[in-house]
């Protein structure tokens, strides 16, 4: 990490109902060009924290800064213009629109002069989507849909890309494809923050990770150190993805 | 048997369809059945009556476009009235629906729209009485077009107008950013926000467009039948039948649903008598909900 971090969420308290916080003072810092992953059991508040940063869940306490500028509680639709893109876990493409329409719609926040070039760049980065550009997004396979959701987020050329469980529901091969694409995207200068249940695969591509439990920070460190720590592995990483949450819930 | 019912039905259907296009858009984007849509139609007709009166009062009587019953004041006044009806819808949203949207209960919105509908209608009766009014008292000669069917020039012009409006709406929804944004909000409002769409702005655009389209059907109805404060409310059932028949959210569905309802109503009048006219829309509505709830062109259920 050098200079001003790309994204800082500090002491965030957030939840859907006033007085019932799901995130209870969690903090996350993402350096420019890093891949940072949020891990933790189900109900730890990972997704809620991410949605709060994206402006989709009200923040009761704490601050969010993007490249040093405070953006706490900015309306979700303005976040995109500031360079913060978010890919929700489910229902993350418009199924009744074509692949191309999904991309064009998202690219509209960019100046008119660069929209066509961005669309072309995305179709080049995702050849599968280029072949199916006229197809309704609802008819894509799960992996292609995830790729479209990522491509859609990249249409705004974000500084920071946030992804909520990009591997959810995908086969191991597709998970590798999606993660390889994320590494490629990071190499182009995009900072990435993601929530993952698939901890081992995520740690393999991440620089650092935070482990949340009950809405608070529990552990943090370099991805390699966390993956190598037997205690962490036992409590949070499990053997695969699914049982990690079961073990995690009974952890102190 | 005379085929005249086909022409009458298609004409009534185009008018119902245009009203249903506005209804289907507001329904799919705002997610409630808006009972004031019928009253937007009545208000649209009266506002057009007002703007046409003001224009002819200001500039003097204008020549008719022969063979039609109207001249340029109805064109200009109609456009003005479309804008005004859109603003009326926007105003009603700001005063009534916007505060209720925060509570998030669809049924509250429906009941509120029912109350607003009564109020809007009562205001028209207060301002204009329930005596019918007319854009023009010129007599229209229906022209035979073959197969024993006669069509008045005004009816033909209105059919053409309906077609132009539907094509314009189709292009708006498929080729423009605001149109795509409307489709996006109708499918998934949360994702729409995530991709940078200002949902509040889309809702405003929807009311403006819905109100303007209601005004067009009000003018069509006023030009070919008469203008009454009840006129829009009486259309409500056929409008809902058309929108649901075509599939909520589908512009072409709404217009085709409108044509089906229109022709079925006119056919019923000819076959079994006019007293069953309004039952036809009801039967079609229920049959569609039982057989195929998402409608002819609906993309998904619920």
Automatic annotation (TrEMBL), chain A:
Keyword terms, alphabetized: Amino-acid transport, ATP-binding, Nucleotide-binding, Transport
Presence of keyword NAD: no
Stored CDD domains: ABC_TM1139_LivF_branched
Every ABC transporter domain range: 7-239
SUPFAM superfamilies per the UniProt record, alphabetical: P-loop containing nucleoside triphosphate hydrolases
Keyword check for Transport: yes
Family: Belongs to the ABC transporter superfamily.
Protein name listed in UniProt: Branched-chain amino acid transport system ATP-binding protein
Automatic annotation (TrEMBL), chain B:
Superkingdom in the source lineage: Bacteria
A Gene Ontology BP annotation from the UniProt entry: L-isoleucine import across plasma membrane
InterPro entries attached to this UniProt entry: ABC_transp_permease, BCAA_transport_permease
Cell membrane as UniProt keyword: yes
Name of one Pfam family that matches: BPD_transp_2
Membrane-topology annotation of the record: Multi-pass membrane protein
Location(s) in or outside the cell: Cell membrane
GO molecular function (one): L-isoleucine transmembrane transporter activity
Keywords for this protein: Amino-acid transport, Cell inner membrane, Cell membrane, Membrane, Transmembrane, Transmembrane helix, Transport
Transmembrane segments: 6-28, 40-60, 72-92, 104-124, 156-173, 194-223, 235-264, 276-293
Cellular compartments per GO CC: plasma membrane
Family: Belongs to the binding-protein-dependent transport system permease family. LivHM subfamily.
PANTHER family according to UniProt: BRANCHED-CHAIN AMINO ACID TRANSPORT SYSTEM PERMEASE PROTEIN LIVH, HIGH-AFFINITY BRANCHED-CHAIN AMINO ACID TRANSPORT SYSTEM PERMEASE PROTEIN LIVH
Name of the molecule in the record: Branched-chain amino acid transport system permease protein
Organism: Kaistia soli DSM 19436
């Amino acid at each position: 990490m050098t200079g001003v971090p790309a994204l800082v969420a500090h002491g965030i308290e957030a939840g859907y109902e006033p007085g019932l916080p799901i995130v209870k003072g969690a903090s996350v810092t993402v350096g420019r060009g890093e891949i940072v992953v949020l891990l933790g059991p189900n109900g730890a508040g990972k997704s809620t924290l991410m949605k709060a940063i994206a402006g989709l869940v009200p923040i009761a306490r704490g601050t969010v800064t993007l490249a040093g500028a405070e953006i706490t509680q900015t309306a979700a639709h303005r976040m995109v213009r500031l360079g913060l893109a978010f890919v929700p876990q489910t229902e993350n493409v418009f199924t009744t629109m074509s692949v191309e329409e999904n991309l064009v719609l998202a690219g509209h926040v960019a100046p008119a002069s660069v929209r066509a070039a961005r669309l072309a760049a995305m179709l080049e980065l995702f050849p599968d989507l280029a072949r199916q550009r006229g197809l309704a997004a609802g008819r894509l396979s799960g992996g292609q849909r995830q790729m479209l959701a990522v491509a859609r987020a990249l249409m705004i050329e974000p500084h920071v890309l946030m992804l909520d469980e990009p591997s959810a529901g995908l086969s191991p091969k597709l998970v590798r494809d999606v993660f390889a694409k994320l590494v490629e995207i990071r190499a182009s200068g995009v900072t990435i923050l993601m929530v993952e249940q698939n901890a081992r695969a995520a740690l393999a591509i991440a620089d650092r990770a935070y482990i949340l439990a009950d809405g608070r920070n529990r552990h943090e460190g370099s991805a390699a150190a966390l993956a190598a720590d037997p205690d962490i592995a036992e409590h949070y990483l499990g053997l695969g993805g699914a049982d990690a949450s079961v073990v995690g819930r009974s952890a102190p | 048997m005379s085929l005249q019912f086909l022409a009458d039905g298609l004409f009534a259907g185009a008018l119902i369809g245009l009203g249903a296009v506005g209804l289907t858009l507001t329904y799919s984007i705002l997610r409630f059945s808006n009972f004031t849509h019928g009253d937007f139609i009545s208000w649209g007709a009266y506002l057009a009556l007002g703007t046409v009166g003001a224009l002819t009062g200001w500039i003097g009587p204008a020549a008719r476009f022969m063979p039609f019953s109207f001249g340029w004041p109805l064109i200009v006044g109609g456009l003005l009235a479309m804008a005004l009806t859109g603003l009326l819808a926007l105003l009603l949203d700001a005063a009534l629906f916007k505060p209720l949207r925060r509570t998030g209960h669809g049924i509250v919105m429906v009941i509120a729209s029912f109350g607003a509908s009564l109020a809007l209608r009562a205001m028209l009766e207060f301002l204009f009485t329930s005596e019918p009014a007319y854009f023009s008292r010129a007599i229209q000669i229906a022209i035979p077009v073959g197969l024993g069917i006669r069509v008045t020039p005004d009816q033909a012009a209105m059919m053409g107008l309906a077609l132009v409006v539907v094509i314009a709406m189709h292009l708006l929804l498929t080729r423009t950013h605001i149109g795509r944004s409307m489709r996006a909000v109708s499918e998934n409002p949360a994702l729409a926000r995530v991709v940078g769409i200002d949902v509040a702005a889309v809702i405003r655009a929807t009311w403006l467009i819905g109100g303007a389209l209601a005004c067009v059907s009000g003018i069509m109805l006023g030009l070919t039948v008469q203008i009454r404060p009840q006129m829009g409310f009486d259309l409500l059932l056929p409008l809902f039948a058309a929108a649901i028949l075509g599939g909520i959210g589908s512009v072409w569905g709404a217009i085709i649903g409108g044509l089906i309802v229109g022709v079925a109503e006119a056919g019923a009048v000819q076959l079994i008598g006019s007293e069953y006219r309004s039952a036809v829309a009801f039967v079609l509505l229920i049959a569609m909900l039982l057989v195929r709830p998402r409608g002819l062109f609906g993309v998904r259920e619920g």
